[in-house]
Amino acid sequence: MLDDAGLQALREAARFSPDNLPLRRHLADQLLTKGYLAEAEAEYRAALMLAPQDPDITTGLAEAFTRQSAYGAALSILEPHLARAGYPPRMGVIAARALLGEGETAGAARRYHEAVSRDPSVAAPDLAARLAAPPQPVTAPPSPPREADSEVERSRFTFADVAGMEAVKETLRLKLLLPVQQPELFAAFGKRAGGGVLLYGPPGAGKTHLARAAAGELGAAFVSVGLADILDMYIGSSERNLRAVFEMARRNRPCVLFFDEVDALAARRSDMRQAHNRQIVNQFLAELDGVDDGANEGVLVLAATNAPWYVDVAFRRPGRFDQLVFVPPPDPAARAAILRIMCRDKPLAEMDFDAVARITDSFTGADLKGVVDRAVEAKLQQSISAGRMIPLVTADLVTAVGQVRPTAVREWLTTARNYVLHANESGGWDELMPWIKRI
Ligand code: ADP
After folding, report:
1. For ligand 1, what atom is nearest to the CA of residue 209?
2. 99 lines ligand 1 (CB under 6 A)
3. Please, what is the end-to-end C-alpha distance for the chain in angstroms?
4. Mean pLDDT across the chain, nearest whole number?
5. What angle do CA 370, 343, 48 make, to 5 degrees?
6. Is 24 a pocket residue for ligand 1 (Cβ < 6 Å)?
7. Entry's Pfam families (predicted)?
8. Cβ of 205 below 6 Å from ligand 1
9. Residue that finishes a domain, picked among 297, 326, 355
10. What is the pLDDT of residue 48?
11. Where is the domain boundary, 303, 326, 349?
12. Are residues 77 and 222 in the same domain?
């Protein structure tokens, strides 16, 4: 590695021959290695102008972004390359770091293990330690059980990062957070902490984000489990995996244990392995009830589903998922707030979030993320061509809105109507009714 004098000489040389690509690239690599991240970023950008498609320069720039916590920027320049087969394995590792920074652990693990399987020399033990074990092929023997890609996360989000949804947050606060934050008060009224909350709503409305934020708000660990993954595993190990994730949550209390796609349990009941699935449902319920009294003390179970009508009634008994909470698509004020949150670490000039919110009716949080990512990507390309940073303005978001197709909130509400309109005797779907009547 160069000492600082060597680096200085390299800087001078690059200044004299600005079009010497290998030289600029070498300078950028050295700056990155020595941790001059902003300067490395500028050099890589300059090099990219000389060789716009170069995967190694792109990887260098992405690493500079990632090490400055600009994960979204890193991912948006990597994406076009990652979509092609044969991208450099080192790029996969940087993408994994950026995905992990964005909280997308499962995607990060997939990228990382794929990269290392192609080139073991890119292995990064620190990253590997933060990621789950590599997925085993289905033909592998069922033992030892893998923990279903789950890992213990520390959420960097709190309710302040969740726009709108005031009523939903209040419910969660009362149900999940206050008993832990103020146990004396709850004890005085003879209430125990426990039981779960089932979040339901259209895909992309923010259920996972909300669960993660609840963990952050509480200062609790966060364990997220895709139930479909557990069920797809080798027969016989699903039960062990279920047990393993509950155990992991108990070891890390206080902990929010989050089950995504909880309807997968019910949806499979009609398939061939019916008896087996019945067994898994029972096991799930037993774990939820706590094998012995107090086993789940300090473990807050949240589950999410896009199809609550499939969820087994047995789940809904007191002490289990006795509370159904609707996570609605965001209204205009919430959309403006979501956009504001998503753009807060981006360079902005004139920006009218309310105007963008008005033209994004029926966009979910996930759709808005798509809009922002697209606008940022376009801006980054422009900035690279111009050789200087050009901030985002309202028109950029408006253009991106025209290019993103919102997921079908309307379709979801239509399906919901078919299921619940004639099945609301108990009032369980009350929160959903005003939305359904609107379509
Ligand atoms: P779901 O679990 O309901 O399918 P997600 O929680 O995965 O949806 O939401 C998708 C993305 O949309 C999240 O990563 C988050 O960035 C964003 N998002 C959704 N709702 C909100 C919100 N209310 N505030 C901030 N971001 C949101």
Report:
1. 6
2. no
3. 64
4. 83
5. 75
6. no
7. AAA (PF00004), AAA_lid_3 (PF17862)
8. yes
9. 326
10. 87
11. 326
12. no
Q: CATH code at 40?
A: 1.25.40.10
On whether residue 219 sits in a domain, the answer given is yes
Query: What secondary structure letter does DSSP report for 330?
Result: P
| Ligand 1 lined by 404 (C-beta under 6 Å) | no
- Ligand 1 center to 350 CA (angstroms): 25
- Asked, for residue 36, whether it belongs to a domain, the answer is yes
Mean pLDDT of 4-29: 87
Please write the tens of the pLDDT for every residue from 279-326: 777 788 888 887 566 778 888 889 999 888 877 777 777 778 878 889
Number of alpha carbons in the 13 Å side-chain half-sphere of residue 236: 6
In a domain, 146, yes or no: no
Contact of 49 with 384, CB cutoff 8 Å: yes
Nearest to 106 by CA among 226, 228, 216: 226
Q: Is 74 in the pocket of ligand 1 (CB under 6 A)?
A: no
103 Cβ contact partners less than 8 Å away, ≥ 6 residues apart: 153, 155, 156, 157, 212
pTM of the predicted model over 0.85: no
What is the 365 CA–ligand 1 centroid distance (Å)? 5
| Residue of the CA atom closest to atom 9 of ligand 1 | 206
Q: Tell me, in angstroms, the distance from the centre of ligand 1 to residue 293's CA.
A: 35
CATH number at residue 305: 3.40.50.300
Q: Is 162 in the pocket of ligand 1 (CB under 6 A)?
A: yes
Q: What is the DSSP string of 400-421?
A: HHHH-PPP-HHHHHHHHHHHHT
> CB of 369 closer than 6 A to ligand 1?
yes
> 346, exposed or middle or buried, with CB in 10 Å at 0-12, 13-18, 19+?
middle
Structure tokens at 264: 């997968």
